[in-house]
Amino acid sequence: MVETAVDLNCHTSSCLPLGHLARRSVRSLCSPPRKPSINSRDLLPPVVPSNQTLWRRVMNPPPANDPAAIGNWVFRGTGTQTIADMIVYPDGRDPDAEMNNAMYRGFDKSKELSIAGRELQGCTLLAIVSRKGVYIRHYCKNIAFAPDNEQLEIRDANGDMEVTLTPDQIFEFTVIDGLRKGIRNQQDSLTKYAPALADDHVQAYLIRPRYSKARDDQRTNLLNTAPPLPDGYEEKWQLMKDEVVRIVPKIGEPGRWTEVKYGATDHQPTLESTERGRMLLMYDPVSVATTRRGEKPTRLVKIWSETREIHSDSWKG
Question: Which of 30, 99, 151, 171 could form a disulfide with 147 if both were Cys (CB 3.0 to 4.6 A apart)?
Fold first, then answer.
């Protein structure tokens, strides 16, 4: 791992202030939730009764082999009417700014849970799920993987340059340090919740763009450079995996780490009216009701990415 020349945990005027690397200006890469246009399918009646009981929704998930049904399910489950927790959300200091974030949610024996992400335009999501709970992280492309000048320049209150950071320093702070120690008010630490996640059923999913924006532009001749650029940020994704495995060694076992690729788009009507750039997790504590005294209910957790079901696990408990 790279060594940082700046103390990224120092918050005085002479070093990196808290939150500097945890927000981004809106651009066509990965945007926070917004109100839909008047033609958005979000305005259709919800798929559930007006009380939006999640239990009823999870009891009838779409078939795993039906992309069209999954796409509609994901769209509705991540729409503006959803009761889901949003993993992609704006910085509270600026309604038009987005930040890297991470959260852990335990699976309650009597309470449903839904987590959604939408308008992913090059963002990366990391979901670590077991039968005890889920740890999910969201990374903006131009904070964590390809920082722009706004992220690299640290200025004082007068706007004068104090420190210029490197992309490796940005990645170390926003991704690796976030996994290890968390970032106050923005990222829960994976280290803190590792004991709750490390059961025999833990799985990790890296939901990431198939191509970086620069590689997409090169492939479509919008960027006339040679030789071909890397498809994405493979080295950094590998560093993420290495750190996750260090914290939760169980994930290093074969078959416990899965990369899920999606085709990023910045076409706003598509993002607003289809399942593109969306993920949805749902947990139901009583997906199959008990019929005999003393029998334990069947619990269910599923994760979908756009038109694919990427995780499904059920158990009695």
Answer: 151
Using one digit for the tens of pLDDT, what is the confidence trace for 124-180? 999 999 999 999 999 888 778 887 777 777 665 666 666 678 888 888 888 999 999
Residue 34: other Cβ atoms inside 10 A: 16
Going from N- to C-terminal start, the domains of the chain cover 24-316
Q: Can you tell me the distance from the alpha carbon of 291 to that of 95, in angstroms, rounded to the nearest whole number?
A: 48
In tens, the pLDDT along 217-236 reads: 888 888 888 898 888 899 99
- pLDDT at residue 54 in the model: 45
115 contacts 137 by C-beta, under 8 angstroms: no
The length of the chain, given as a count of residues: 317
**Cα–Cα distance for residue pair 187/277, rounded to 1 Å:** 22
Q: Check: CB of residue 163 under 8 Å from CB of residue 6.
A: yes
C-alpha to C-alpha distance for 91 and 136, rounded to whole angstroms: 17
**Cα 118 to Cα 253: distance, rounded to the nearest angstrom:** 30
Distance CA 39, CA 13 (A): 47
Can you tell me which residue has the tokens 């991704």? Answer: 175
Q: Kindly report the number of other CB atoms within 10 A of residue 143's CB atom.
A: 27
70: left (phi over 0), alpha (psi -120 to 50) or beta: alpha
C-alpha–C-alpha distance, residues 264 and 138, integer Å? 15
Query: Which pTM was predicted?
Result: 0.80
